[in-house]
Amino acid sequence: MSLPWAFSAPIVTERLQLRLLTPDDVDDVYAWMSDPEVVRYQLYEPRSREVVAEKLVEYSAATRLEKPDDYVQPAIVLDGVVIGAIYFKLVSVDDLTAEIGWVLRREHHGKGYAFEAASAMVALAFDDMGLHRVVAELDPRNAASIALCLRLGMREEAHFIEHMMFKGAWADTGIYGILEREWHARR
């Protein structure tokens, strides 16, 4: 398979299910999007339930990767409850590159769920979408996300100093990446 790619069926891992977010997920998603500790490294401030409901309409419509900036944002579901999400954006069709990100409700941190979900998406990127490279762009102060990148086999490729205005202050940006051949060499 290759691009374009459509999210058509849930992805099942050992403990989780990845499926498209729906407007019905508002309470579960509000649980993390309103938590200042969880969104500390996200590009947004804590959100109201109303804003979360609006975002879920947008996210549920994002189902296809065909051109740059297309994205999918599947829910990470544990025992029927949405505990987080994976963000997966097509960066370049010509260069077969995508960006991945993740977020989990605080009570589910440190249990390997983000690794399990991200691993499933990276495997899909390389095996089903035919991508060459997956990157993660993150705040270098986010030690947990850096550890997850390293566990996925990504390497630090860049550290930009005062790269962006982030929540009222200049912030650095870290870039981590992995190539398809590196991913398969690890398996």
What does the secondary structure layout of this molecule look like, with pairings?
Elements: E1 5-6, E2 11-12, E3 17-20, H1 26-33, H2 49-61, E4 64-65, E5 71-72, E6 74-78, E7 81-92, E8 97-104, H3 113-127, E9 133-138, H4 143-151, E10 155-166, E11 169-179, H5 180-186
Parallel strand pairs: 8-9
Antiparallel strand pairs: 1-4, 2-3, 3-6, 5-7, 6-7, 7-8, 9-11, 10-11
Helix pairs in contact: 1-2
Give the beta-strand count: 11
User: So what's the CATH class?
Assistant: Alpha Beta
Mean pLDDT: 95
Q: Please give the CATH architecture.
A: 3-Layer(aba) Sandwich
Major sheet characteristics: 9 strands, mixed
- Percentage of residues assigned to helices: 25-40%
Structural shape: globular
In terms of DSSP E residues, the strand content is: 35-45%
* Head-to-tail CA distance between termini: 20 Å
How many independent structural domains?
Answer: 1
Q: Rg, please?
A: 16 Å
Return the CATH topology.
Answer: Aminopeptidase
Low-confidence stretches: none
What does this structure look like?
It is a single chain. By secondary structure, the protein is of the alpha+beta class. It has a single domain, classed as Gcn5-related N-acetyltransferase (GNAT) (Aminopeptidase), CATH 3.40.630. The protein has five helices and eleven strands, in the order βββααβββββαβαββα. The chain has helices spanning 26-33, 49-61, 113-127, 143-151, 180-186; strands at residues 5-6, 11-12, 17-20, 64-65, 71-72, 74-78, 81-92, 97-104, 133-138, 155-166, 169-179. The strands form two sheets. Strands 2, 3, 5, 6, 7, 8, 9, 10 and 11 form a nine-stranded mixed β-sheet that branches. β2 (11-12) and β3 form a beta hairpin. α1 (26-33) crosses α2. The radius of gyration is 16 Å and the shape is globular.
